[in-house]
Amino acid sequence: xxxxxxxxxxxxxxxxxxxxxxxxxxxxxxxxxxxxxxxxxxxxxxxxxxxxxxxxxxxxxxxxxxxxxxxxxxxxxxxxxxxxxxxxxxxxxxx
Length: 95
Hints:
With about 100 residues, the chain is mainly beta. Helix content is about 5%, strand content about 30%. It is built from one helix and six strands; from the N terminus they run E-H-E-E-E-E-E. It has one helix at about 15-20; strands spanning about 1-5, 40, 55-65, 75-80, 85, 90-95. The strands form two sheets. It has a four-stranded antiparallel beta sheet with strand order 2-1-3-4, with no helix packed on it. The protein has a two-stranded antiparallel sheet with strand order 5-6. It starts with a strand and ends with a strand.
């Protein structure tokens, strides 16, 4: 399978304003910054790693799949990607 990513235009995740603006974005209303599109074919285990992406919001599209395979719906992902671990007083957010 081949996945294509591109940085979403008009979103600056180095600011809180950018994080707020990102909340209204969907794959359908997200235009790509010219020249940021990159594609990778997945490895045998189904993974594809896009290394060294700058901070930003990215649109991910499965651009090719073998016959008989249902393609994934387009989605957005942020770099960095926040993750929450623990709960209650022990809850923390990591990048």
